[in-house]
Amino acid sequence: MKKIKIDRYFVREKGRTYEVLKFPFIKYMWVMDDWDSEGTHFSIDGSKEVYIQMKYAFAILANFPDKIIYFPCRQWRIGNCYSENYHLVLCRPELQFKRSLWVRIRRKLDRKHLSGKFVLQYDRRKLDDYIRKGLWRHYTRLISPDSGYLNIPTEMYHEMWSEHFEEMRGDTVFKVLGRTECYVCHYETAYSLERYCSGTDKYMSTWIGWLVSDGNIYDTYRRAEMEKDSIKVQNAAEGVIATEMEI
C-alpha cells in the first residue's frame, strides 16, 4: 500500500464548506476539447507523470464523493498543438457542486484555507477487485481475455453515462463522474500506464486521452521551434523584398 499526499483546502461558500484537493502543477499536461461528438468531449493528454497523478485522482473520487479535485494544469501551447487548453476539476454527482461558484472558491485556495495534507492509502489491488469481483457479477466477460482492457457492455455504458457530465467554464473544464466510472477510469488508466511502461511506444491512446512519451514531447517542441525559426526567416525575406520594391 502506498501513501499519496495532496494539499487539502477547506473553503466555505454560499453556506457550504467544500473540501478541495489541489494536485501539483504538471508541466506536460493538456486538457483540451477533442471535438468528439460522442463520448467524452475533453481529452486529457500528457506524460507518464500525468497519468500517474490521474490514477490517484480517480482512486480518490471512487471512494470519496465529497471531494473536489483540482489540477491547475493550463499552460503554454507547443507550436500549433494544444493552442487551447484548460485547468481541470473533477467531482462526483453526489456532491451537487454548483460550478458557478468555482471562481470564488479557487481564489480562496491560499495558505489561510490550507488544511494540511489529504493522505490517500493507495491500494491498486483493492480498487481492481471492485472491477473483477464486484462489477463482474453483473457484467460477464467485462475484462477482455486477449488485451486485459475492459469490454464495456451497452447497459453498463448507459448507466455510467447517465451520471457523466462535462462542461467548460472560462479557463476550466469540469468533469462529473459517477462511482462506477471512477473505478473504470482508474482501472483503464492504471492498466494503460502499465502497458505503456513495458513497451516502446512513443504515445498511446487511452480511455481518457493520449499518453505521450517525454521524447515525443521533446520532438514536438523541437518541430515547433524549427517552424518558428522558419517563419522568422520567411518574414525577414519578405521584409527585404518589400524594402527593395519601395526603392
What report would you give on this structure?
By secondary structure, this protein is of the alpha+beta class. Helix content is 38%, strand content 26%. It has helices at 48-63, 102-107, 124-134, 154-161, 179-197, 214-246; strands at 2-13, 16-22, 29-33, 42-46, 67-71, 87-91, 114-122, 165-169, 172-176, 203-205, 210-212. The strands form 3 sheets. It has a 7-stranded mixed β-sheet with strand order 7-1-2-5-6-9-8. Strands 3-4 form a two-stranded antiparallel sheet. β1 (2-13) and β2 (16-22) form a beta hairpin. The model has no long low-confidence stretch (mean pLDDT 84).
List its traits:
247 residues, 7-stranded mixed β-sheet, 6 helices
Content of β-strand: 25-35%
The parts where pLDDT drops under 50 for at least 5 residues are none
Shape verdict: globular
Portion in helices? 25-40%
How far apart are the termini?
76 Å
Q: How many whole angstroms does the radius of gyration measure?
A: 21 Å
Reading side by side through the largest sheet, how are the strands ordered? Answer: 7-1-2-5-6-9-8
Number of helical regions: 6
* Main sheet properties: 7 strands, mixed
Counting DSSP E segments of at least 2 residues, the number of strands comes to 11
Q: What is the helix/strand order?
A: EEEEHEEHEHHEEHEEH
Mean pLDDT: 84
Structural class: alpha+beta
